[in-house]
Amino acid sequence: MTTLVHATDTLTRDALTVLQPGFVGTTAPDWLLRRIGEGLSSVGLFGRNIVSPEQLTALTAQLRAERDDVLVAIDEEGGDVTRLEVKQGSSFPGNYALGSVDDVELTRAVARELGRRLAACGVDLNWAPSADVNSNAENPVIGVRSFGPDPDLVARHTVAYVDGLQGVGVAACTKHFPGHGDTNVDSHDALPRIDVDLATLHSRELVPFRAAVAAGTKAVMSAHILLSALDPHRPATLSPQILTGLLRQELGFEGLIVTDGMEMQAVAATYGIERGSVLAIAAGADAICVGGGLCDEDTVLQLRDALVNAVRTGELPEERLADAAARVRALAAWTQAHRARGAGSVSGAAVQEGTAPGADIGLVAARRALKVTRGERPYTPMTSAPYVASFTPVANFAVGDETPWGIAVELERLLPGTETGSYADSSVDAVLAAAGERRIVAVVRDVHRHTWMIEALDALIAARPDTVVVEMGLNEAEPRGALHIATHGAARVCGRAAAEAVVGTGA
To answer: Are 382 and 415 in contact (CB under 8 A)?
Structure first.
């Protein structure tokens, strides 16, 4: 690897400053600590880096021993997308559940408690909340990560979430600008395209982002999506019209613009991560997120040198790189000031009753988010161990397949002897054979998007009309079964709330 300039050079430090890389391991590798000493100002954490609050606290302390103002970022949305509890499932329901309740004080309290836990572990930048308006029910990557399909509802809950996080000193990063909701392609895999007119974008996609900017969100994350009405040639992350013209100038945002992961195929497949990073900074981005997939020192050095070389050749104005680095440092200073004041504890504004630190606000919210629909026959709560049949779709990249979901564990806690199996096709013969005489609980996720899942449920209910159906994704299909429970998300607490309803203690 060729180093273009000396590590102490201002240009090199600025190039390192705008990177937000990831790494492998539960302690910081030597190369990462060395680069922090040379100017790297941010680090991104993922599920692979976390095993416990105590370990995470030690890790962030290790990073800050190199420099106290390093930004420690995480992708912790709660709900289906959790890094803090990647092996257990989240203690907090996600956006769709909160939007279904539509109590902004509850949303603020959930975000505040989540932020308190992050701050207590030394994390000070959260790549959340998702402010996408999920106007397309076929969307494969947003779904329950959105507060819902109504722009005004999404806006008020986005503001509450930003307030909750930032009230305890954790910078919010509202995403995915200018809106990833009306897509049927996952930008981890390919470039999504939204072909609606400007009036629609302004009355739908942009409503929550305008509200978040007005509420003072410290950061905004760009989306790797093509919006032809705004820029027919480049995805938002690489578009000056969108990042500088729309977000900076029209919406008046002065905080940090962070890119979505640069190794995602929507950008990497066409531009490559080096060229994509240069174009992103030139377009108005201030921080390059990379590390969900590419998480080694060579990646950091490649991107650093690509930025330095682009300045040297005149492709990237030096003042643009310097401005981006200055915005990173400004946010780092804000978070550092909050840490110095001990802002990790809830203080200041009064909080809703039952939502103080340590209160189980996540479970409270999950219970409130349940929608229980009874079938035509009277439902008899289960008192003996059932059989849980989980119809399992392929997880999207953002959610991942590490985090458990469903209700079997929670039902086992309430009804010892509960057994479970996972199924991925429409045949129910194996389900019926495994269940025997036991009652069946069928667990699904976005059943409306999967024909095979619909067929399986139809066959199962025809054979066993007393089947309970638990929908843990978007609640778009008609209720079916002796009892239909919509959890509005697959977080662990959503599973617990559903299990309580099955046995009759929560419905």
So the answer is: yes
The chain-wide mean pLDDT, for the chain, equals: 90
The number of angstroms, rounded, from the C-alpha of 221 to the middle of its chain's C-alpha atoms is 11
The pLDDT of residue 135 is 87
Cα dist from 450 to 2, 200, 400, 454, whole Å:
49, 28, 19, 7
How far, in Å, CA of 507 to CA of 499, rounded? 10
Q: 75, 132, 163, 260: which one is catalytic?
A: 260
CB atoms within 10 A of CB 57: 14
What pLDDT score was predicted for residue 395? 58
Q: Are 104 and 157 in contact (CB under 8 A)?
A: yes
Model confidence over 54-75: pLDDT tens digits?
Answer: 999 999 999 999 999 999 999 9
Whether the per-residue pLDDT at 344 is higher than 50: the answer is no
Chain centroid offset of residue 109 CA: 18
Q: How far is CA 103 from CA 93, 174, 369, 430, in A?
A: 14, 19, 10, 42
Largest CA distance in the chain: 76
Pairing of strands 371-374, 483-486: antiparallel
Distances (CA, A) of 476 to 100, 318, 390, 447: 13, 50, 18, 8
Q: What is the pLDDT of residues 301-331, one digit of tens each?
A: 999 999 999 999 999 999 999 999 999 999 9
- Total number of residues shown for the chain: 507
188 is catalytic: yes
Tell me the pLDDT tens digit for each residue of 104-118. 999 999 999 999 999
- Terminal CA-to-CA distance of the chain, rounded, Å? 61
Predicted TM-score of the model (pTM): 0.92
**Residue 433, exposed/middle/buried by CB under 10 A (0-12, 13-18, 19+)?**
exposed
The CA distance from 135 to 125, in Å, is: 28
Catalytic site residue from 180, 188, 224, 488: 188
> Would residue 488 show up in a list of annotated catalytic residues for this protein?
no
